[in-house]
Amino acid sequence: MSTTTSQDSLRKTPLHRCHLQLGAKLVPFAGYEMPVQYTSVLEEARTVRLKCGLFDVSHMGQFSVRGKDTLGAVQRVVTNDLSKLGLGQAQYNMLCNDAGGVIDDLVVYRRSDQETFICVNASNRKEDFKWMQSRLGPSVTLEDQSDETALLALQGPTAEAVLASGVDAALIKQLRYYWAVDTTVFGIPCYLSRTGYTGEDGFEIYLARDKAIQLWETLVEIGRKSGLVPAGLGARDTLRLEMGYPLHGHELSPTINPLSAGLGWVVKLNQPTHFVGWDAIKKEAEKGSARLLRGFIVQDRRIARQGYAIADENHAQIGEITSGTFSPHLNAPIALGFVNRAASDLAQVWVQVRESYVPATVVKLPFVPSHTKKNP
Fold first, then answer.
1. Which has the closest alpha carbon to 311: 368, 264, 362, 259?
2. Is the peptide bond before 366 cis (omega within 30 degrees of 0)?
3. Do residues 193 and 205 make contact, with C-beta atoms less than 8 angstroms apart?
């Protein structure tokens, strides 16, 4: 997380006051002053897996595409197959450049027949908007709603119980994973989505910026009896890494092809509309990726940080770490990184930590089981 931006120039989410009152440690992130933790990163991560955590992710960007054929227009710039989306359904996607590199990963919602709603990463918001605006075509309008929108993420096994008294109980039970609905949450109009970045059951709640504090405080109060805690970006990063979820700027970037990152399931090359980057990704699929993403459990207490070299038994470099942290659920350091295709079948590697080489076991992702709500 960058610390070079002065505090005065950082943007603040509508919940900034709440974070100060809760004694959060605030850090610069994607141009915002964001809570990295309230008490302890590890304790907050544990609580999300066991009970429930509430995250402020209002720094994320939200776009609305409106017109007669919004799905057709958006299909020209994303890699997954939007024709499969039902009304209210969400879909994970990649926004790629002409070379097949990932400009951003995002979630696309078919909000109505006339609107496609898109959630993008905060640091890529302006670039994403310009890229889409230049390629969607004249039949639709693209609007950036980020400054008017707040986003809360309620994640964990008791998340549904926390919402139960504020949303129609039948609606909550029927809302499937990666589906969303316009409704009210504790009387506040929201776009309620059963999605998240933790691997647990949970919800992401889009709402008007000026209602964010009211909903946050209500959820914190109601959730206390269910064990809810406010959770910061540190816990969020730990949780996503335990699931092997990619983070843009780490496992994804404009120079990383989604196939190399193990995201072939998000790329549909057999659809009639050829999205931006289709030719380059097709070539990558045919020849195979030169490097592949792998997960590692480090056999040491030291963390394998981004940029650390991955080596074979002879200490010859075969790759590089992209993300690393300590997993409270495995009680060990874990990491993601790319290795050369020739070394992609190795069961053990070594990570260079300063002057020493630390052994690491290659494991199948995710590091911990997913508990997202399974659709029938």
1. 362
2. yes
3. yes
Phi-psi bin for 277: left (phi > 0), alpha (psi -120 to 50), beta? left
Q: What is the pLDDT of residues 13-39, one digit of tens each?
A: 999 999 999 999 999 999 999 999 999
Answer whether 289's CB lies under 8 Å from 306's CB: no
Amino acid identity for residue 204 in this structure? E
Residue pair 74/65 in contact by the 8 Å Cβ criterion: yes
Query: Taking CA 152 as the corner, what is the angle to CA 3 and CA 332, rounded to the nearest 5 degrees?
Result: 60
Please list, in sequence order, all residues whose beta carbon lies within 8 angstroms of the beta carbon of residue 264, skipping any fewer than 6 positions away: 258, 285
Tokens read off for 223: 């959730």
- Token pair, residue 354, equals 């300063």
Where do the structural domains in the chain lie, given as residue ranges? 7-56+148-242, 290-363
The position carrying tokens 């670039």 is 127
Structural domain 7-56+148-242, CATH architecture: 2-Layer Sandwich (3.30)
For residues 169-190, give the mean pLDDT. 96
- pLDDT over 80 at 343, yes or no: yes
Superfamily, domain 290-363? Aminomethyltransferase beta-barrel domains (2.40.30.110)
